[in-house]
Amino acid sequence: MKQKNIKIKDYSIQLRERKKRGIYFPVFVIILYLCISIFNPIKALESLMVSGKLFLHLIPIFLLILFFMGIINYFVDVSQIRKYVGKESGLKGWLIVTIAGILSHGSIYMWYPFLRDLREHGMRSSLVAVFLYTRAVKITLLPIMIYYFGLAFVAVLTIYMVIASIVEGKIIEIIEK
Amino acid sequence: MGYKKDRSILSSFTRALKGFREAIPVLLGIILLLGLFETFISEKIIASIFTGNLIKDTLLGSLVGSISAGTPISSYIIGGELLKNHVNLFAVTAFIVAWVTVGIVQLPGEALILGKRFAITRNILSFILSIFVSIATVMTLMILK
């Protein structure tokens, strides 16, 4: 019981620290903008507009990921997360994240909170890495890629990228041991 | 999939929102940084970096792809332009692979949310792998032809 209380206390301290560090980064970027706006206000404004457009573009993705997180919180137990993508998931876990990574949409960073949530519930770091790597294989963008580089190039590259994602996951697994 | 009766749909979504709320300042920081990158680093600047040396350009391809940010479509367009400008396929492949797998601009955010050690290891490995993927892809294409 005492140990459990210490663990909870540690976690809340960690959470507070994480929140604090989370504020430093955007503050640094805002200071960067302020510095740039002194020397080149037009470029700073232009950057802000690009960011604004990007932000609007990301809102549906944000809602979709939020929906996923909510659904997983509701339907899936911690034990099930461990079963499918945890230490005991085996080959099934690798397969699930590879397919999920390929099918996932939106910018990579929008998935960070979701992945942190899953990892805190037992998902392996190696599988987080596989998911992030396979996100690079964009099925919806394949026709555009084929247009620029040809079918053979895209097919070969896609196969090697999936292999590389597994290699990366395996290396991270070895490092974490 | 299991179903937990002691958990309401509202509390599940509130928990999800709490998880996201904490990450929002970091995500906004990343978005603002991407805005700066897209405004200041043009296609021309990227194309001017390549030298014509196969090994050097492949490494440069990975390096430039790693520090570049934006939608993958931009990397295809720039990659296509680089090929037209006679930059070798090894370099262009390394460039587009690193663009989508390594994220130096997003690295501070990734480190804050997923952990410093994990983010740095993952990005270093992705950088190295982008070179291997590029060599393997182009060599395979050469054999197939």
Sequence-ordered SSE layout with sheet pairings:
The complex is a heterodimer of chains A (177) and B (145).
Chain A: H1 2-39, H2 41-75, H3 78-85, H4 90-103, H5 112-120, H6 125-134, H7 142-149, H8 151-176
Helix pairs in contact in A: 1-2, 4-6, 6-8, 7-8
Chain B: H1 9-40, H2 43-49, H3 54-67, H4 72-84, H5 89-101, H6 107-114, H7 116-144
How many strands appear in the DSSP assignment of chain A? 0
Please provide the count of β strands of chain B: 0
Radius of gyration of chain B: 19 Å
Q: Major sheet of chain B, described briefly?
A: none
Instruction: Kindly state the percentage of residues in helix of chain A.
Output: over 70%
Low-pLDDT ranges of chain B: none
Oligomeric nature of the chains: heterodimer
Biggest sheet descriptor of chain A: none
Mean pLDDT of chain A: 85
Gyration radius over CA of chain A: 20 Å
Give the count of helical stretches of chain A: 8
Measured by residues with Cβ under 8 Å of the partner chain's Cβ, the largest interface is: A-B, 72 and 62 residues
Please report the distance between the alpha carbons of the first and last residues of chain B: 48 Å
- Helix percent band of chain B: over 70%
> Outline of chain A, from the CA principal axes?
globular
In percent terms, what proportion of residues of chain A is strand? under 5%
Estimate the mean pLDDT confidence of chain B: 87
Structural class of chain B: mainly alpha
**Poorly predicted runs of 5 or more residues of chain A:** none
Q: How much of the sequence of chain B is in beta strands?
A: under 5%
